[in-house]
């Protein structure tokens, strides 16, 4: 699914999923087998392969929701 990464006014990383009309803060980031894994405030985990460092924001990328 396509997601948009950006920073909110307090500098926190935020993920927006347009198809779900969902905007949540990232509460943790880890490295896994499928790339960088973001855990959102609502409990979702999104895997983002090949995420370039340093992170340039805002940007739209392809992510996969983990079960």
TrEMBL record:
Highest taxon above the source species: Bacteria
InterPro entries linked to this entry: NifT, NifT/FixU_barrel-like_dom_sf
SUPFAM superfamilies associated with the record: NifT/FixU-like
Protein name: Nitrogen fixation protein NifT
Organism in which the protein naturally occurs: Calothrix parietina FACHB-288
């Amino acid at each position: 699914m396509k997601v948009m990464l950006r920073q909110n006014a307090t500098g926190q990383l935020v993920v927006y999923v347009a198809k779900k009309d969902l905007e949540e803060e990232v509460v943790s980031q880890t490295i896994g087998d499928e790339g960088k894994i973001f855990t959102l405030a609502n409990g979702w985990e999104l895997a983002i392969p090949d995420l370039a460092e340093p992170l340039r924001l805002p940007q739209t990328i392809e992510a996969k929701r983990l079960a």
